[in-house]
Design a protein that fits this description.
The chain has a single domain (about 10-325), classed as 6 Propeller (Neuraminidase), CATH 2.120.10. The protein contains two helices and 26 strands. The protein has helices spanning about 255-265, 270-275; strands at about 15, 30, 35-40, 45, 55, 65-70, 75-80, 90, 100, 105, 110, 115-120, 125-130, 145-150, 155-165, 165-170, 175-180, 185-195, 200-205, 215-220, 225-230, 235-240, 245-250, 285-290, 295-300, 305-310.
Length: about 325
Amino acid sequence: MFTNKKPLISLENIRFVGYNLNRPECVITTNKGNIYVPDWNGGITRISANGDVCSIHNVPVKELKPNGIAIRRDQSFLLTNLSAEKGGIWSLVPGHSPEPYITEVDGKEIPPTNFVLVDNQDRIWITVSTTLKPRSLGYCRNIKNGFIVLADKYGVRVVVDGLGYTNEARLSPDEKYLYVVETFGKIISRYMIGEKGDLLNRQIFTEFDDWTFPDGIAFDSSGALWVTSIFSNRVIRVLEDGSQILIIEDLDSDFMSSIENVFQKGDMKDIHMKKIKSKTLKSISSIAFGGKDLKTVYLGCLHGNQIATFRTTIKGLPMAHWKWGL
């Protein structure tokens, strides 16, 4: 339940950057003013501070369907593969073509892969939403077969499983906890990070009511967590006590009622993901703070060809890659 009845920011305050983007599901920013999004053709697109748009890959890879992306300390990129058949992580050095990087865990192929995060210790956190094929079979509250892979100096291994459609994940500002979105569980979980990266003492940080399906997350400088919701095009700010403030909302009430109905019945399919009704936003999925003062919010999306953006009075928490800016 939201603490406010109306969104704090009007849709009239939304602006857009970029053009001709191809499923920019994930968005990341750097201190150089650049914005990076996945290119569904098989690479990464850069939106420069001056608004120019260009590919940073040499030749796209057809079997690669990038969903989540991350920047490494050496200024190479990691991309998750969300193709229908294969998953795992690919590596991309700007100016070259993507190549497979992590494709197996515990001797098995990694299924279609949702998200990747590189932290300040150069650990790689990887989320897999579901092991089912097609993935739409996992669009159900009762299906909990998502998991998280960690790649670090100790190797590549699954650190937690049994999650309700694992989506984005973020480390707390002190990097002692990992916050994990479970989209069709309608919750955000929190784990204590052990000495060797083990995830311990699971807690439910916050739960969401009807019409909210959490997807992307980002911390602000005060420790509050900003959350995007697919279908309802909501941005929600969750305080440390779990209470929720509605920042933006762009939805059709009748449409959302029908979506909630099929979800509760366990009948949600891919077709429901593709027919989202809204005025301005196109199923927002990811969120990042950027701009010189970290007070500009950027929103990745599933169906648009631009990145929505708005200004806020609250400064974002810089990501690990912020200071590695390209």
